[in-house]
Design a protein that fits this description.
Chain lengths: 95, 488
């Protein structure tokens, strides 16, 4: 398993991280070192083993489907870098 | 005033109730000590006005004889916990300016019990690090130094600010969190006590998420009793966290000092790793000897999948992190860096806001979750996790508690470890516990040849924190306490 520079760019795009071209070789090297080390998991016999979904054996909690919170739009947008009339402001998306 | 900051929570609690001093005097002593210790960079924000107001309220309660369990006890809060109206940034640039309009359940529990907030503590960015070198707010300096050396050392991480502040006596105790060892490793590096409770014991509500299936809150304190007092208040059943478990919170303090006669202690042979320093192995054997002398029964056990815990962690934790950190998009909170269009704005904001280690983990996580790799990496890692948990489940037939070293080495200097994988190996003894969701406590057990604190770890059955406090206090009784000599 080896991550090439095109894969680094593709993954960075998926992760919405802008990566400068000059940083791509360094990142590819770092990711390969980590993934190479992780590869030792291939030694483990996992056939017939269920993947772990919860460390604690408990039944999923259910609650009444009712409104318990809300009516505080100004609190919700209070930390936004740009807001107007209790809306989050973003760059134009639709022409 | 400095004598007041040398008191444990238990001693301060007694002093406050006897009116030997007031809560305001105690808080003022800590605020003065914090000012003198700013060179440690343990606090990213001090909240003196809030602290004094809370202390005064505590004094009124004490005067009326209505003291609550932590009345007037000054605490530091890791920057990962949301504190209403107060800087909460997980020590990341991406959360610049964020002040939550709500309080985390754990910190709210502490204020409900009368504690006083001194400020927010430094940490590795988003709790990703083992040396507190990834914080946007700079390194934390360990109050401990090597014998005959002036060189600065790291306090461990990610709860480096919490551990350093407790060791330097600039808070009575601190909140911390542990995803792969972030409570226990810094506790071991600073001669303090840190417990990661069972997954589900403390609510995760209002704690900035890193890896949700592994994250747990816990305290760092000066001794085992104080850690027990803290955990009693921090733990709760919370309807706002569906993974919070419906079980009453026991009186942990009552377990401190309980005899260990007849306790079955397991030493897992797989923890004797290649290249482990002789003094770590010797400390481990000494710890077993102490427990044996107090009547415990020590047996060797096997946890065969131990070596796979760390590589499996570095799939599961980054995968969950890449998903949790998707929310930092420059729209709802924190940093926004403009771009040509909305996607460009997202990418610019995240590139400028996240540090190198966080970006590395987001990329790893995105990669292992991406199409074609999910089964080979993520599903396989979750299967390995099942095997790690099974190892422990089988061990519990033979033993009540497992004893291991807390870390493979004492602390080190900033910049000494630059290779990410080498840094990750710091958590080799602690991470299995998170993967299996178990409780683990780090307790100081001695000093290295150059005078640095070393810790032992005890691992318990799910929700059996009481046995951990009981066994840890037995080790503490034999090992004694370790206090850094002030130079700051």
């Amino acid at each position: 398993m080896s991550v090439d520079q095109a894969t680094v760019k593709r993954v960075a795009r998926l992760a919405r991280l802008k990566v400068k071209d000059e940083d791509v070789p360094r990142l590819a090297g770092e990711l390969n070192a980590i993934l190479g080390w992780i590869e030792q998991l291939n030694e483990v016999e996992v056939s017939g083993v269920e993947p772990l979904t919860s460390v604690v054996t408990m039944k999923m909690k259910m609650r009444q489907d009712v409104v318990t919170d809300g009516n505080c739009p100004s609190k919700i947008v209070a930390n936004a870098p740009a807001q107007e009339d209790d809306f989050f402001m973003v760059p134009k998306v639709v022409e | 005033m400095s004598a007041l900051t040398s008191l444990t929570i238990a001693a301060a609690r007694d002093g406050l109730r006897k009116k030997s001093f007031s809560a305001l005097e105690l808080t003022n002593a800590y605020l003065a000590a914090m000012e003198k210790a700013r060179g440690l960079n343990a606090y990213v924000v001090e909240t003196p006005d809030k602290a004094r107001a809370m202390a005064s309220a505590s004094d009124q309660r004490l005067a009326r004889g209505e003291a609550r369990p932590l009345e007037g006890i000054p605490l530091g809060i890791k920057d990962l916990f949301a504190t209403e109206g107060v800087h909460t940034q997980a020590c990341s640039h991406v959360l610049s300016g964020f002040k939550p309009p709500y309080e985390s359940t754990v910190s709210a529990n502490l204020w409900r019990d009368g504690a006083v907030m001194l400020g927010k503590l430094n940490m590795d960015e988003f709790a990703m690090g083992s040396s507190n070198e990834t914080s946007y707010y700079g390194n934390v300096i360990n109050p401990w130094k090597r014998r005959n050396s002036n060189a600065a050392l790291v306090p461990g991480g990610s709860s480096g600010g919490s551990a350093a502040a407790v060791a330097a006596h600039i808070c009575a105790a601190a909140t911390a969190t542990d995803t792969g060892g972030s409570i226990r490793q810094p506790a071991a590096f600073t001669g303090t006590v840190g417990i990661k409770p069972t997954y589900g014991r403390c609510s995760r509500w209002g704690i900035v998420a890193f890896a949700s299936s592994l994250d747990q809150a816990g305290p760092i304190a000066r001794d085992v009793r104080d850690a027990a007092i803290m955990l009693k208040s921090m733990a709760s059943v919370d309807p706002r966290d569906t993974t919070s478990v419906d079980m009453p919170v026991p009186d942990y303090e009552a377990a401190v000092g309980r005899p260990v006669k007849g306790l079955r202690v397991g030493l897992p042979r797989e923890y004797r790793v290649d290249g482990m320093p002789v003094e770590i192995d010797a400390l481990w054997q000494k710890g077993a000897q102490w427990l044996k002398e107090q009547g415990a029964e020590v047996v060797e056990i096997s946890l065969p999948h131990t070596k796979y815990a760390l590589p499996a962690y570095y799939i599961v934790a980054p995968a969950e992190a890449s998903s949790n950190l998707a929310r930092y998009d420059g729209v709802r909170y924190g940093l926004r860096v403009p771009g040509d269009d909305i996607v460009d704005m997202y990418e610019n904001s995240r590139a400028a806001g996240f540090g190198r280690e966080v970006q590395r983990r987001i990329l790893i996580g995105t990669y292992v979750l991406s199409a074609g790799y999910y089964d080979a990496h993520y599903v396989r890692a979750q299967k390995v996790r099942t095997l790690i948990k099974r190892d422990f489940d089988q061990a519990w037939d033979k033993v009540d508690v497992v004893l291991t070293p807390a870390t493979p080495s004492p602390t080190f200097a900033p910049g000494e470890i630059t290779d990410p994988v080498q840094m990750y190996l710091n958590d080799i003894f602690t991470v299995t516990v998170n993967m299996a969701g178990l409780p683990g406590i780090a307790v100081p057990a001695g000093l290295s040849s150059d005078g640095l604190p070393l810790g032992l770890q005890l691992v318990g059955k799910p929700f059996d924190e009481e046995t951990l406090f009981r066994a840890a206090s037995a080790i503490e009784q034999s090992a004694g306490h370790y206090v850094a000599t002030p130079w700051w």
